[in-house]
């Protein structure tokens, strides 16, 4: 039974992530999945200091995203995966990596196929293509026609953003990308089709409250939580927000929402401003090499789609979801549980 705290009406989330408790429960009862989390190529033009898709064993390799990985799924395999998810009832197709989706020529065919199969696409992007004078508008307009929700990376002031993503000029591109998407109307719908992705950690902490304010004023969904415990951030480090800092920023954002926007909510993890409302866990995440996990936190593994049917993996995943899923984030909880002195009672206060 899905018991996620519906802190705010689900329509305040972005399209594709706006499943409410009732539809989650219905899907679980029918044995259907909600999300397929998929990837495009490993190639990326950025080198973010926190990137969870960089293999943990080579975490400091600045060139990791320079090339496709050997053995990446080819187009017909990526499309077959969408077919398999659609047959299992999936509603949302999240492109969450591995590198930068919009520099992969196979990205748009993936999105088009998902739409043809009746899935709502959600594309995460670093904004470099959408912010380019040469290509940005054509790509943005195609994503608009396809009904896609777009989430652009945003880490506060330009100098902070460029330092974190390790690319000079990245924030200029990001800002042009967001302005273009707003001009086209991505934030004029309800639920909105525009999100920004920020991450709560040492480098971004001071900017989170104003980031929330800007999103509330502009009908932009804020996808914002702490580190995913994978890749470069697999283990707790001093770059992560401490538990006290996490509690403080979530409480501050609750105060802002309640007093400035009339939006009371519980301020629970995982999402700043939205509480315990993760529905991505009700699905499967398949990497560009075909390995399947419960979500990007990679706490559960189900083998490779080249060896095993998606339906078989989903049948294995479904029973524990039915009995224990509550809209929270087990991987992030385990990340903080591993930190010194974190008792379950303390974790329960925020998760
Ligand atoms: C892996 S990226 C791929 C898409 C695109 N390159 C981008 O960065 O937007 C997908 C999303 O995960 C976020 N992300 C990457 N590493 C993360 C981490 N360690 N913790 C939390 N979010 C992370 C990114 O900011 C982005 O919004
Ligand atoms: S832009 Fe995305 S894929 Fe590229 S390094 Fe940053 S988080 Fe990783």
Query: Based on helices, strands and strand pairing, what is the structural class?
Result: alpha/beta
Low-confidence stretches: none
Report the C-alpha radius of gyration, rounded: 19 Å
Q: So how many helices?
A: 11
The rough form would be described as globular
Cα-to-Cα separation, first versus last residue: 17 Å
Taken together, the total number of domains comes to 1
Strand fraction: 5-15%
| Percent of residues in helices | 25-40%
Mean pLDDT: 94
- H/E element sequence: HEHEHEHEHHEHEHEEEHHH
Q: What is the highest CATH level, the class?
A: Alpha Beta
Please identify which CATH superfamily we are dealing with: Aldolase class I
CATH topology: TIM Barrel
Reported for the largest beta sheet, the result is:
9 strands, mixed
CATH architecture: Alpha-Beta Barrel
Structure, briefly:
The chain has 351 residues and is of the alpha/beta class.
For the structure shown, list the relevant keywords.
9 strands; binds S-adenosylmethionine; single chain; 351 residues; 9-stranded mixed sheet; alpha/beta; binds iron/sulfur cluster; TIM Barrel
Walk me through the structure.
By secondary structure, this protein is an alpha/beta fold. The protein has one domain (11-350): Alpha-Beta Barrel (TIM Barrel), CATH 3.20.20.70. Helix content is 36%, strand content 12%. It has helices spanning 21-30, 75-87, 107-116, 136-145, 158-165, 170-184, 208-217, 243-261, 310-324, 330-337, 344-350; strands spanning 35-38, 92-95, 120-125, 149-153, 194-199, 221-225, 283-286, 291-293, 301-304. Strands 6-5-4-3-2-1-7-8-9 form a nine-stranded mixed sheet. Helix 4 crosses helix 6. It starts with 20 loop residues before the first helix and ends with a helix. The protein binds S-adenosylmethionine and iron/sulfur cluster.
